[in-house]
Write a structure and sequence with these properties.
three-stranded antiparallel beta sheet, about 120 residues, 2 helices, alpha+beta, 8 strands
Length: about 120
């Protein structure tokens, strides 16, 4: 279950940037300070659904209205890269995801280190 949550959180952030969420330089080691970095990040201090979040297994609600994630993996090689703020896997081959009828090609997956999110209170 936790690996599924990690996967979907990662896909959400990848899609957010790909669809124009943009990127701003900041230090992942201080997520409690994100709201003070810029006026556009104010909700990080006062909101309820912004990063960082603590995903608590006992409070997780299954949404049965979501469609099944369709995936078609065809990897021929992958490269693991430590960027200093993330661990990235760059992939070759044609792997695709279908989310509500829209296809996305997998180019890379990455995790921030240290993570800004918690699972059951653990970073």
């Amino acid at each position: 279950m936790a690996s599924s949550i990690i996967f979907f959180v990662g896909i959400y952030f990848l899609l957010n940037v790909a669809l124009g969420g943009g990127a701003v330089e900041f230090d992942y080691s201080n997520p409690d300070e994100w709201g003070s970095l810029s006026p556009q990040f104010e909700l990080c201090s006062s909101g309820k659904q912004q990063s960082p979040i603590d995903i608590v297994h006992a409070e997780t609600i299954v949404n049965n209205t979501l469609h099944t994630l369709s995936r078609d993996y065809h990897l021929d090689s992958a490269t693991l890269v430590n960027t200093g703020v993330s661990i990235k896997v760059k992939v070759k081959g044609k792997s695709e995801f279908d989310i509500d009828g829209k296809k996305y090609v997998l180019l890379q997956v990455h995790w921030h280190t240290p993570s800004e999110h918690l699972f059951n209170g653990i970073r």
